[in-house]
Amino acid sequence: MERRTFLRQSAALAALPLLRTAPGTPSAPAATRAPLRVNGARLNGWLAKFDSIGRTPGGINRVAYSEADLAGRAFTLGLFREAGFTPRIDTAGNIFGRLEGTDRSLKPILIGSHVDSVTDGGNFDGPVGSFGAIEVARSLREHGVRLRHPLDVVVWSNEEGGTIGSKCAIGHITPADLDKVARSGKTIREGIGLVGGNVARLSEAVLKKGDVACYIELHIEQGGLLEKAGLQIGVVEGIVGLRWFEVTITGFANHAGTTPMDQRQDPMLAAAKFAVAVNETVRSVPGRTVATVGRMNVSPNTTNVIPGQVVLTVDLRDLDAAKVAHYTERFEQLGREIGAATRTTFAFTRTVDSDPAISDPQVMRWVDGAAEVLGFTRQRMPSGAGHDAQEIAHIAPMGMIFVPSVGGISHSPREFTKPEDVVNGADVLLNAAIAADRR
Ligand SMILES: [Zn+2]
After folding, report:
1. Quick check: 51 pLDDT over 60?
2. Cβ atoms of 434 and 213 closer than 8 Å
3. Dist. CA 273 → ligand 1 center (Å)
4. How far is the CA of 219 from the centre of ligand 1 (A)?
5. Could you say which of 54, 146, 221, 416 would form a disulfide bridge with 68 (CB–CB 3.0 to 4.6 Å)?
6. Is the pLDDT confidence value at 87 over 60?
């Protein structure tokens, strides 16, 4: 960090003793000094209790709209109530709880995450940020700190099925999306009804630009960069853009015994060369681009036949949209070159295309400044995984806080984040929200 930035942040946080305390709050100190801290033992206690909901021999199974998801949401609603908040469920099934602010003209600061899981997942992806946000609101109330802005805690519905709740909240859901069958076996339309929403009135859940002051999401990293670097906090620069291609390579199916090696049009050979070339092209340039050939369908997929066709997929991600465009061109060029060399043809189809969601520089400074006053080691980093924050970035300044995942493992029963890291993340969220309130 530049010294100037540091001084500015220090100055901003030095102003924190001016925080108002609610009149008649007996436990509130006369002036609350930064940095405040959450009740970490309570937060980790909630996570430990939550671990029994949807726990199966294969891992945590709280896929959206399942019985376990409903139980997890009921548990979460209980945490809101226990903290003194009256939760409301919007028509998309998202749960909101509000800590009122002192200035009615200000829009809410929004913090939260999700509590649904993937199939055979872990207990930390989602709940850390959701319960961390509830704990932040509860701590502020207990410390008698009154923010000027309302503080809204949100628990988005069905994050793992394609950020459905947050997509609804920005109005980016289509009737076709609603008819898709979720992993629970129910359609999204049915599921939203099951969790207390109302698809006939989805427009009521839509937040427009300007409706939210900013959005900050605490989440586990789900990768191993922080642990490897021995750092406590990741200040997320944005969520990478993602592009998926289906590449159809066509050759000529023929007898594996009678076709001489120099007379083949072998799409399997072309696919192998292409997979190596994709990897080498990305690795030859320093940067954080990742590209993966993850699936290959070979036809006829038989031992004694030179294949006639291979369909493979490429997953390409980077925080910089220009790099995604650059590698798209490079891969198409590789297809032409390898096609010419192997007498096959490459046809590219884009199946998924999502733009990078860039964190707001000011929100990043609040997160960075909060980690600074708390004395945490940290780095700026992209998120390689998708989050609700990427949707909310369309309508509000967005930022995310990452805490380390042990072994870089996530979406697995072995997913684990140390209790002290959970608390560190919540402490950063608390102080970042306070900094956001003071702008
Ligand atoms: Zn998540």
Report:
1. yes
2. no
3. 35
4. 7
5. 54
6. yes
Burial of 296 from C-beta contacts in 10 A (0-12 / 13-18 / 19+) = middle
- Quote the ligand 1 centre to 347 CA distance (angstroms): 34
Tell me, in angstroms, the distance from the centre of ligand 1 to residue 135's CA: 18
Mean pLDDT of 151-166: 97
pLDDT tens digits, one per residue of 167-205:
999 999 999 999 999 999 999 999 999 999 999 999 999
- Identify the residue whose tokens are 């908040």: 85
CA 296–ligand 1 middle distance (angstroms):
28
Whole-model pTM: value is 0.86
How far is ligand 1, taken at its centre, from the CA of residue 47, in Å? Answer: 15
**Encoding tokens for residue 276?**
């190596």
CA of 222 to the centre of ligand 1 (A): 9
Q: How far is the CA of 283 from the centre of ligand 1 (A)?
A: 28
How far is 199 from 188, CA to CA, in rounded Å? 9
Q: Give CA–CA dist 207/188, Å, rounded.
A: 20
The lowest-confidence range among 4-18, 49-63, 245-259 is: 4-18
Please give the angle made by the CA atoms of 132, 409 and 297, to the nearest 5 degrees: 125
* pLDDT tens digits along 148-158: 999 999 999 99
Average pLDDT score over residue span 233-255? 97
Looking at 265-356, list the stretches that DSSP marks H as alpha helix, in order from N- to C-terminal side.
267-283, 321-342
Cα(342) to centroid(ligand 1), Å: 43
Cα of 389 from ligand 1 centre, angstroms: 10
Question: Cα(239) to centroid of ligand 1, in Å?
Answer: 12
- Which residue in 22, 44, 42 sits closest to 32, CA to CA? 22
> What is the C-alpha to C-alpha distance for residues 116 and 66, in angstroms, rounded to an integer?
9
Determine the Cα–Cα distance for residues 333 and 328; give it in Å rounded to an integer.
Answer: 9
Distance CA 61, CA 166 (A): 21
Distance, CA 206 to ligand 1 centroid (Å)?
21
Give me ligand 1 centre to Cα 410, in Å: 9
User: Strand 345-354 and strand 151-156: pairing?
Assistant: unpaired
| Whether residue 13 has pLDDT greater than 80 | no
Distances (CA, A) of 137 to 23, 97, 142, 166: 18, 9, 9, 21
- Ligand 1 mean position to 259 CA, how many Å? 51
Taking all residues of the chain, what is their mean pLDDT, rounded to a whole number? Answer: 93
Tell me: the pLDDT tens digits for 398-407?
A: 999 999 999 9
pLDDT of residue 23: 47
